[in-house]
Amino acid sequence: MDRISYGGWKNCYRLANRAIELVVTGDVGPRVIRLATKGGTNLFKEFKEQMGKTGGDEWRIYGGHRLWHAPEAKPRSYQPDNEPVDVRETKNGLVLTQQVESTTGILKQIAIAIDPTQPHVRVTHRLTNRNLWAVSFAPWALSVMAPGGVAIMPQAAYLSHEECLLPARPVVLWPYTNMSDKRWTWGERFIQLRQDRTAKHPQKVGIALVDGWAAYVLKGQAFIKRFTHAAGAAYPDFGCSFETFTNSEMLEVETLGPLTTLEPGCTVEHVEDWFVFDGVKVGKSDASIEQAMVPILKKSSKIMG
pTM for this one? Predict the structure, then answer.
């Protein structure tokens, strides 16, 4: 771990092993602003005009990875994270703690642990209720990806009509979702969403991602995000444990925890496991994605133990 300046912020922290590196901000956040193979191109989007800024009441996206609580609403979701965070060093990483949000009474914390040798980071998101009353929400982890890549979401296992009479694969659409948009590929095994810098309209979809993983592939680098989908639990947005959003600047890879009613002083956790693999090539067909994803998913499972 090194304390560095990055993007105009004087107080940032770089965590690295032989395979990957990430940078977190101490002057704003909690936020991970960079993730890459060691010395490689940042997989996360950086909004150049906002880099290095601090303070003020305006919410800034900045880029990188952030923690929210769902469902989305203004102004509740858009509380600024423009102030310094408490940074505490741990054995293999850092714990970033934000001051309690004055308008929501929620304390946000992100704990980061990097594997000593493997391209793996465990990211634990915590929301604590500092109000005097119970609140209901779901933890929501959003990664803002750099432009030009493709998000890949697996569909649940195919079963015939004779095997299963009840619905099993909820897909949730937003008012601006256009299923005929050229950025979408609706395959039998995978759903794909491509980021397009020339696109004029945003796109978003949510799913109950029972397989517990999604990917973003950019210039041969594959970002794998793994999490637990709790079967039978109630999720926000008509049952979404995963959502993806894109516009002309970026694409977001988002996971959500179950809806929970949090009593005063209590904390809810949501864990993601990140992996970055290099030399990954995918085409548009389900077969090409299967060929590229299966080996690295097996490797990530092995790393997680």
Answer: 0.97
